[in-house]
Amino acid sequence: MRNTKSTILENVEIAPGIYSMMIETEGSRFSHPGQFAMVQVPEKFLRRPISVCRFDGDRYTLVYRVVGDGTRIMSRMESGDELDVLTGLGNGYDVGVLPQDVYIIGGGIGIPPMLGLVRALTMEGKSCKVILGYNSEKEIFLLDQFRDLCDDVTVMTADGSSGKKGFVTDAFDVADVACACGPLAMLKALDPKVKDGFFSLEARMGCGFGACMGCSVKTVDGSRRVCKEGPVFRKDELLWDQLV
Amino acid sequence: MRPDMKVDLAGTELHNPVMPASGTFGYGQEYKDYFDLSILGALVTKSVTWEPRYGNPLPRIAECSQGMMNSIGLQNPGIEHYLEEDLPMLREIYYGPVISNISGSSPEEYGRLARAIDGQEQVVALEVNISCPNVKDGGAAFGADPEISRRITEEVKKNTSLPVFMKLTPNVTDIASIARACEEGGADGISLINNFKALKIDLKARKPVTAMKYAGLSGPAIKPIALRMVNEAFHAVDIPVIGIGGISNADDVLEMIMAGATAVQVGSANLVDPWTCPDIIKELPKRMEELGIESLDEIRGVI
Questions:
Q1: ipTM for the complex?
Q2: Domain B7-55+72-195+218-299, CATH among 1.20.120.140, 3.40.50.970, 3.40.228.10, 3.20.20.70
Q3: Any CB–CB contact under 8 A between A98 and chain B?
Q4: Is the C or the N end of chain B the one with fewer CB within 10 Å?
Q5: Which of A36, A66, A89 is the last residue of a domain?
Q6: What's the pLDDT tens digit per position in A139-197?
Q7: Structure pTM?
Q8: Using CB atoms, which residue from A70, A209, A223 is nearest to B274?
Q9: CA nearest to A62, candidates A80, A48, A73
């Protein structure tokens, strides 16, 4: 069944260049935090992959950064506008396999999917230590929503204008289990400080549902598609020197 | 009367002329949750090589005006996996005709692949990729040379009992001479076009957008050129032509058939909208009726 016809309920700028778009798609397929949507942007050929921040039934929120033409066009759309979205893509985080205590680490535009994960963990009665990395105070977004769900939220800013000065890696010594999403450099830096966990990768995609092989990465288990077997990978599966 | 969508493709009757193009449909699995694959006229599987291939470095994908570029580099699990895993799994979800697309780095490898696939249940034809723009050994370099194109055709024909379709590259000066060379080599048909070799540059980085400098351009942007080349090939040979290039709706299919195509393949459009093929198949008889077309035979090659 085709279930991509969507309506924008809200599209607001929540920090400079960062937008939050609430969408309703009848028959939306989101089932796990960390999954993503492929958004058909008017006038553009390929869809844009954007991770889901929160979802509830047919309604969900995509928090995205304006990085190019496609996201710029998205940012100008208004509530009531129609959109075509493929939903529920990728594996997402399996909350069931995570332990009682888990570090949740997000950097920059990798922060939004972690909100859905913290929400799911909280609903399961699990506790999170949340670490969020921003460039500066004026770029902070979603922080209040994290604080609503969790008492242990550490903010790191690169310039020290809010929270502690430094990167997410400066916020802790070692984590038994961590889930992380953010720039590749951040994930690489986290790797030696995290014993086990699940990292979410970003990739330029063609289709987003496993058909084109545009986003295949080499892992210890062989070739894996970021869009299909990922975007969430067990940390030990990743071959850092193969990721660009 | 309901318009007749049936086509005869080198001896196999297809209930409609629409099939997904190789490389945009994997081995079917990724689409099974979106629609019942049996609606397809035929299904062309992703290029298989003798050995598994990982493919090219990332990024492999770029967006362009009315199209996209890819430099996947023939990533595939190799012939053994294809025969033991991918084809059997496809048979569980799809019961129609399969066209196996093969790609080699020498005429001899094409021959071995053809032999390995011969006799496989449900496989009704081979499509021979001599046109991939994203590999170093062979690929489009084979399909740009009439003599090599003919030699590969002969080698494949020697090793199979199946009809053989040669898939041609548009990166040539004279498509008619390549089409004729394949016909002389014994091809039962030709498929065209594959991607155009293309370049997109990141101005800030002063580098190509894709990790490989050049990548293959596809999508609606190439449709008018595809129509011209299909038409040239149609007039150059007496064997059937499968039209490929930028098709995304029923009108595009009818255009392609008027240009001379017996059947068509839908490529990039599947990646943007996984329902493209079933949508076209539903729409086609309506458009035929509106345009007063009783059968596809009536309009084939009228241009």
A1: 0.95
A2: 3.20.20.70
A3: no
A4: N
A5: A89
A6: 999 999 999 999 999 999 999 999 999 999 999 999 999 999 999 999 999 999 999 99
A7: 0.96
A8: A209
A9: A48
